[in-house]
Amino acid sequence: xxxxxxxxxxxxxxxxxxxxxxxxxxxxxxxxxxxxxxxxxxxxxxxxxxxxxxxxxxxxxxxxxxxxxxxxxxxxxxxxxxxxxxxxxxxxxxxxxxxxxxxxxxxxxxxxxxxxxxxxxxxxxxxxxxxxxxxxxxxxxxxxxxxxxxxxxxxxxxxxxxxxxxxxxxxxxxxxxxxxxxxxxxxxxxxxxxxxxxxxxxxxxxxxxxxxxxxxxxxxxxxxxxxxxxxxxxxxxxxxxxxxxxxxxxxxxxxxxxxxxxxxxxxxxxxxxxxxxxxxxxxxxxxxxxxxxxxxxxxxxxxxxxxxxxxxxxxxxxxxxxxxxxxxxxxxxxxxxxxxxxxxxxxxxxxxxxxxxxxxxxxxxxxxxxxxxxxxxxxxxxxxxxxxxxxxxxxxxxxxxxxxxxxxxxxxxxxxxxxxxxxxxxxxxxxxxxxxxxxxx
Length: 441
Known about the structure:
This protein has 441 residues and is of the alpha+beta class. The chain folds into four domains: 2-99, no CATH class; 105-194, PAS domain (Beta-Lactamase), CATH 3.30.450.20; 198-269, Signal transduction histidine kinase, dimerisation/phosphotransfer (DHp) domain (Helix Hairpins, Orthogonal Bundle); 277-440, Histidine kinase-like ATPase, C-terminal domain (Heat Shock Protein 90). The chain has helices spanning 2-26, 29-56, 68-104, 123-129, 147-154, 196-231, 241-269, 281-296, 316-332, 379-385, 391-401, and strands at residues 108-113, 117-121, 164-168, 171-183, 187-194, 277-280, 301-306, 309-314, 339-347, 350-356, 405-411, 415-423, 427-432, 438-440. A five-stranded antiparallel sheet has the order 2-1-5-4-3, sandwiched between helices. Keywords: ATP-binding, Cell membrane, Kinase, Membrane, Nucleotide-binding, Phosphoprotein, Transferase, Transmembrane, Transmembrane helix, Transport, Two-component regulatory system. Its EC number is 2.7.13.3. Pfam families: HATPase_c, HisKA, PhoR. It is an enzyme of class 2 (transferase). It comes from Microbulbifer epialgicus.
């Protein structure tokens, strides 16, 4: 830039000297100098005009030819134009490759702008959601009208939630899984997967487990009845008493397993919501504590701490099952004379129920898999305690139906703390008035 200024200044000086010398020879140096400088100024303005006109026309074609500093400026702009054109071609080629690769995917991809407005989608998404080219710019919820999806899209924390499964728009036989990822300024990417086959297989598994479990109840009832009759009469020889007791124990265990399987199947196949009836937390905890003390037979100290008067809106039997499974697990895996604490408290995030024990504890490596069906941290110890391996799976599904979550804190050989978290929308606080009555808020 400095070299250009020096060069242009040199040209200006040469023109000025030439005009001055020509003026001295002609006898009117001032007029010659003015004419020369005017011609120089007109030349500069003309080249600037040509440059502005070239820019106004969108820089079509090569830059105008010129001399001096303007010629160098034109050359620089021409080189920049060529470089920009090459980069633009590269970007277009990359965009075509991205579009071709996404078009080849079996999963649907939808790009959203301004929150939930359609910006672009691949052919798979158009087929799965029934989108057409003319639908661009419209809201996605106009085409996927499922209430669960509408709530999912309007939830600011949808990035952290699990993918949503729902029927395809206009085709109830097709099952889709949608997952939303937000990025940039109010933009989002929706991944759509066809999981019809997996859904059908899962439904077949659920139906099979439910049907088999239901069919097993009758023969188990008959076996248990005959075993009880044989044990309570003189029909069986004394040598049979021990085998009969073991048979009865296993029959009870199988009955418990069948009941848990049926409960789990019902939780999986029934409506997503867990009911909307207020369940008194204090009464529920006291009931669970009584059952745990009976199951423990006085071997454990079970304490109940309920802060305030609260209720959870949901299904009473399901909530009882979740609370009881946690407490009975604490009894099973705590040594004699161990202390078990049941606590309920509330804060700005909602209500929380915790069960703290001084049992065998759990290695952190096992915690992510605790809610899997039949998963056992120690298979031998679990069978000795009479567990079915379904308790925490039931707790998980109850929480899903009540919009809750579970967290686990545990140290091997020191004990565990299981905490159930319920959102504020599911918890009602009660306040005692001056007459000792309890009123809801």
